[in-house]
């Protein structure tokens, strides 16, 4: 759609930047009743991805290690935020999630992404049709600390990707005009509520369409990747654990962007095959991560002197993957124990070399499971190599 950008005499730059000009905004075709074209390659890739995700959810190594879900979610949030230019380590995110005082700047942004993804997964698990309000609610959660971007509301002005901040003159991509957003989102939600497509292909198409619409002033990439979780959970492909697809996408940012371009230019099968490959890799590597964490837990248990299974120390070991930086104040709820018993268990594990005390103080002193962060760093490095 051709639109006119009105001149701004005060714009920074030369005459070209201050002049009126015409630009093309991309308006995607509706997809509510789309019968996506497919190739044998794409169909095989989607089938393999669904099998890999289902295997992750049924893996014996994951059974009994429910906390792997929290690890995968944090990895997903970090990678999804990294695509948007926010860099944060697993250690700093864990610190921000346990200590609000540490949740500033990038840490606060990524921590909000964790909460938004948790909300998206919960919404996807509800037995009802998803709505536009659900997607807006995820955006509200993600951007609650950024009132300038009107959290939970669709945009009311033209936006763009790349180029200048004050005009779309050199933009890489210009989404549809603001008055097209509501119509396109209604259509997208109708597509998301369909049950006649493979879940992975549906998640791929829904995500690409959402990114093409770019319905919010900011946070579109992160909400769009939350939408992947909503669809995979809603379709029952990932009833327990959604693999951190963003980790693989972030490892291949150029391929990810090229895939979105493929979708906009009508090469839907190519995009679905690429997305399905990312799902498969994320699921397989996540299963390997679960197995490594199981082995690490066994090592910790032996190192701690094989404590009774109902002891505070043993129960803390089981909870550490979900809370790799913790304190007695936070771990007591996880293990259902008193503050004193939780602190005693943490002290015993510190003496055994399972955790390390990282802050001073009395009531809220913090402990870190350093070896877990080493495993996570190796996992993320392996994804980069495989991708």
CATH fold descriptor of the largest domain: Fic-like fold
CATH class designation of the largest domain: Mainly Alpha
Fraction in helix:
55-70%
CATH architecture of the largest domain: Orthogonal Bundle
> At the fourth CATH level, what is the homologous superfamily of the largest domain?
Fido-like domain
Number of helices: 16
Domain count: the total is 2
How far apart, in Å, are the first and last alpha carbons? Answer: 36 Å
Low-confidence stretches: none
User: What is the typical, i.e. mean, pLDDT?
Assistant: 89
Across the major sheet, the strand order is: 3-5-4
* Helix/strand/pairing category: mainly alpha
Q: Tell me, what's the shape?
A: globular
Strand-residue proportion: under 5%
Order of H and E elements: EHEHHHHHHHHHHHHEHHEEH
Largest sheet: 3 strands, antiparallel
What is the β-strand count? Answer: 5
- The radius of gyration over CA amounts to 23 Å
């Amino acid at each position: 759609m051709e639109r006119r950008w009105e001149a701004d005499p005060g714009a920074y730059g030369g005459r070209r930047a201050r002049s009126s000009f015409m630009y093309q905004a991309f308006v995607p075709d509706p997809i509510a009743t789309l019968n996506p074209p497919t190739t044998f390659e794409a169909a095989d890739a989607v089938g393999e991805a669904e099998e890999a995700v289902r295997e992750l959810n049924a893996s014996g190594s994951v059974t009994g290690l429910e906390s792997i879900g929290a690890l995968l979610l944090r990895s997903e949030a970090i990678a999804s935020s990294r695509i948007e230019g926010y860099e944060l380590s697993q250690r700093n995110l864990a610190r921000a999630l346990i200590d609000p005082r540490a949740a500033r700047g990038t840490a606060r942004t990524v921590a909000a992404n964790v909460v938004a993804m948790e909300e998206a997964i919960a919404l996807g698990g509800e037995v009802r049709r998803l709505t536009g309000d659900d997607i807006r609610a995820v955006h509200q959660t993600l951007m609650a600390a950024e009132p300038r971007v009107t959290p939970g509301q669709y945009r009311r002005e033209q936006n763009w990707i790349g180029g200048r901040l004050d005009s779309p003159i050199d933009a890489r991509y210009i989404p549809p005009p603001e008055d097209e957003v509501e119509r396109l989102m209604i259509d997208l939600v109708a597509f998301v509520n369909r049950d006649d497509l493979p879940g992975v292909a549906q998640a791929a198409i829904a995500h690409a369409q959402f990114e093409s619409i770019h319905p919010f002033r900011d946070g579109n990439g992160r909400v769009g990747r939350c939408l992947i979780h909503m669809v995979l959970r809603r379709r029952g492909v990932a009833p327990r654990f959604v693999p951190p697809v963003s980790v693989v996408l972030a490892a291949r940012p150029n391929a990810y962007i090229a895939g979105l371009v493929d979708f906009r230019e009508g090469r839907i099968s190519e995009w679905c095959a690429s997305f399905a490959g990312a799902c498969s890799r994320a699921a397989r590597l996540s299963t390997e991560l679960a197995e490594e964490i199981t082995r690490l837990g066994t090592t910790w248990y032996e190192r701690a002197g094989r404590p009774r299974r109902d002891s505070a120390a043993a129960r803390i070991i089981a909870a550490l993957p979900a809370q790799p930086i913790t304190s007695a104040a936070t771990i007591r709820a996880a293990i259902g124990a008193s503050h004193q018993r939780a602190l005693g268990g943490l002290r015993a594990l510190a003496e055994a070399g399972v955790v390390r005390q990282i802050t001073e103080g009395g009531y809220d002193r913090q402990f870190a499971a350093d070896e877990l962060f080493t495993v996570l760093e190796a996992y993320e490095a392996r994804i980069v190599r495989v991708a």
